[in-house]
Every structure is written in structure tokens, then in C-alpha cells.
Amino acid sequence: xxxxxxxxxxxxxxxxxxxxxxxxxxxxxxxxxxxxxxxxxxxxxxxxxxxxxxxxxxxxxxxxxxxxxxxxxxxxxxxxxxxxxxxxxxxxxxxxxxxxxxxxxxxxxxxxxxxxxxxxxxxxxxxxxxxxxxxxxxxxxxxxxxxxxxxxxxxxxxxxxxxxxxxxxxxxxxxxxxxxxxxxxxxxxxxxxxxxxxxxxxxxxxxxxxxxxxxxxxxxxxxxxxxxxxxxxxxxxxxxxxxxxxxxxxxxxxxxxxxxxxxxxxxxxxxxxxxxxxxxxxxxxxxxxxxxxxxxxxxxxxxxxxxxxxxxxxxxxxxxxxxxxxxxxxxxxxxxxxxxxxxxxxxxxxxxxxxxxxxxxxxxxxxxxxxxxxxxxxxxxxxxxxxxxxxxxxxxxx
Length: 398
Ligand code: CTP
What we know:
- The protein is of the alpha/beta class.
- It folds into two domains: about 5-180, 3-Layer(aba) Sandwich (Rossmann fold), CATH 3.40.50; about 185-395, 3-Layer(aba) Sandwich (Rossmann fold), CATH 3.40.50.10300.
- Helices cover about 35% and strands about 25% of the residues.
- It contains 14 helices and 22 strands.
- It has helices spanning about 15-30, 40-45, 50-55, 75-80, 90-100, 105-110, 125-130, 130-140, 170-180, 210-225, 250-260, 305-310, 325-335, 380-395, and strands at about 5-10, 35-40, 60, 85-90, 115-120, 145, 150-155, 160-165, 185-190, 195-200, 205, 225-230, 245-250, 270, 280, 300, 315-325, 340-345, 360, 360-365, 370-375, 375-380.
- The strands form six sheets. An eight-stranded mixed beta sheet has the order 13-12-9-14-17-18-20-21, sandwiched between helices. Strands 3-2-1-4-5-6 form a six-stranded parallel beta sheet, with helices on both faces. A two-stranded antiparallel sheet has the order 7-8.
- The longest helix is centred in the last third of the chain and has 19 residues, at about 380-395.
- It is elongated, with a radius of gyration of 26 Å.
- The protein starts with 5 loop residues before the first strand and ends with a helix.
- The structure holds cytidine-5'-triphosphate.
- Cytidine-5'-triphosphate binds near residues 191, 301 and 319.
């Protein structure tokens, strides 16, 4: 929530400065108190009068007020702000920030700010992807700043590519999720997708899991400020949040090894993967020929969730159950066997639920036996319900 927050907006000299007027308006509309800092070049793109009128505060640009000599303290501005948003941030200013150069009030304020800093780059696509700029952005990220990635589309140069400043709504939403974040400082392990069990170099045993549910949970967790370790079987999905570190695995065995390594680093784990229960005892290194007789011997894989359940301690551990029959009874038994705090039941018998759909209908069953049934929703909405449930448990535990 942004109401009452002190937001300092730094505007550097790029054409996207015209969007900063809307940015200020949106923050004011959210109830934030806004002050604006501009570089000399920014003033050529948009006037200080526009920005002071919209922000309802004087605009800062010089180290001192040229009329009365009054000192504009970058330290005071940095201390006043709950968040410093530099939008647009030109390649020039990004380079100076990364190098610690402080030749204007916007930059001295950046160096002395104690609050979280958000940087929204804007420039032409060739500048944006130049290694000097990408490595400067990496440096700024490594200092703990949040980079609000530029978007693709038509640029002021007339070219089409990545470099446009993120839309003001996107910038405001980034700050909203930052201040809403209830899992800041927490580490979450999420497993997702299917596993593939090798038969020979061209064949495997797999299942229809798309990974969508697990990825949606990982993203919702990251939006709440958590560092997410996503151990993923083979999927065609991409990760869309800087707080998610994806670890790719193929087989149940590999997923087991990664989870055992990562679980001790985490406070919360959500087991969404559809892990194969059996794997070929002796995978072959040469293709099985059509003419050969085939008897495939399978051996049991390790139960990852049950192993983590034994190591659990006071961590929150949740899992999924996809059932075709005796749903409630089977799900309750799984929750107990694997020492879950709660289990999310989805039934293959429900239309719109299960593998490779964009929707799901779940019932959450808690350790104390209580059940909460939800209507059919998109997997993204279902992820929010699951994460809210975790947040409730997390609050109870703190
Ligand atoms: N799970 C796991 N490792 C396995 C098997 C399952 O971590 N080797 C996890 C799943 O990610 C899920 C939960 O355990 O959170 C239940 O998985 P599910 O496939 O529904 O059940 P199984 O335990 O495999 O039992 P069954 O196949 O007999 O229903």
C-alpha cells in the first residue's frame, strides 16, 4: 500500500521524461506524498512547473536555491524518502550511478539514499543492449537496487526494440508489490512440472504435467518478496520474476538431489511437481530396436516430499494431491505420510482441473482436518489462494 508513503522521483534527461508526469499523478492518486528531483537535461524535456504542480511540492534540481542560496540537502531528501524511483534513467545516469559519480543532486541523493531504490531505464535499443549498459544494470542490481526492466515496442528513434521505459502503471505496481510484500527475507522452495525417466536415448516415461500451477505459485511467492528456488522438471515455461532462481532437472532422482540440497536454505516448501513414482531400473545408452523383445523393469523412485517431511522442523511444507478416486481419503493419507502442514487436492474428475489446463478447482485440507473448497479459477488465481493460506500459517508461526 502506498498511502502515506514518501516517494522521491528522480527524472533524468530522456524523452520518456514526459511519462514521469503520469507517474507522479498515479503515485499522488495512491495517496503517496511525492517529491521530484530533476537533472538539468530533464528540464529540457518536461518543465519543473508541471512536476511541482502535479506533485504539490517544489522541484529539486540544484544543490542550492539560486534565489536565496538555501542548501538543498541530498542527505535530507534521501532520509525523507521511503522509496526513490529514478524514471526515466538514461544510460548516462545509469553509468554514473554504477560508477559512484555524483555530479548532480539526483546522483548525490542516490548515493546517500538509505531507502529502496527503483530504476526504470529508458533509451534506444542499441544503447540498452550494449554490454556497458547491461553490466552497469547488473552492478546496480548487485547493490540491492530494483531494476524495472524496459519494455519492447516503438522507440522515440522510430526503431522498434527493447528500451522503452516501463509504463507508469507498471512502475507503480512494482512499488505496490514491494510494500505489500509479506514474505520479504523468506526463502521458498517450489517443485514444478513433470519428471522424465530415461528408457533409452530417445524414449522416456513422463506425464502430462505442464508445470503451470507450480510456476504460478513461484511467481506469486516472488511477488510477496520471497527468494524462490524453483526446481523444475522439463516444461516449456519461462520465469518472469527476478526473485526466482530456476534449477532445471530432468529425472525424479535429480529433483530429489536438488531438493535435498536446497531445502535446508528455505523456510517454506511447496511440492507441486508430478514426480514419477517409478523409473527404469537400467536405462539403456543405445536405442532399443523394434525387433528386440522388451521387458521394462522399473524400480521405485524416492519420495521427495516424504523425505523433506522428515527434515521439516518448523518449516512450512505443503503438497498437492491429484486424485482420480477416493479423493478426500487419499489426500488426507498423503498429508499424514509426508508430514505436510496442508495438502491441496485437485481431482481429475473435475472439469477444468488437472494437467495442462489453465484452470484448477482445489480443496485445501489442513493438518487439523479442516477443509476449504474453492470454485474453478485460473491457475494464477488458485496460486494466490494457496499463497494466502501459507501467509496465514506464516503469520501464526511468527
Ligand atoms: N511427491 C514427491 N516425490 C515423489 C512423489 C510425489 O515429492 N516421488 C509429492 C508431489 O509433488 C505432491 C505429493 O507428493 O506434492 C503427492 O504426489 P502424488 O503424485 O499425488 O502422490 P504419490 O505420493 O506419488 O502417491 P500416488 O501416486 O500413489 O497417488
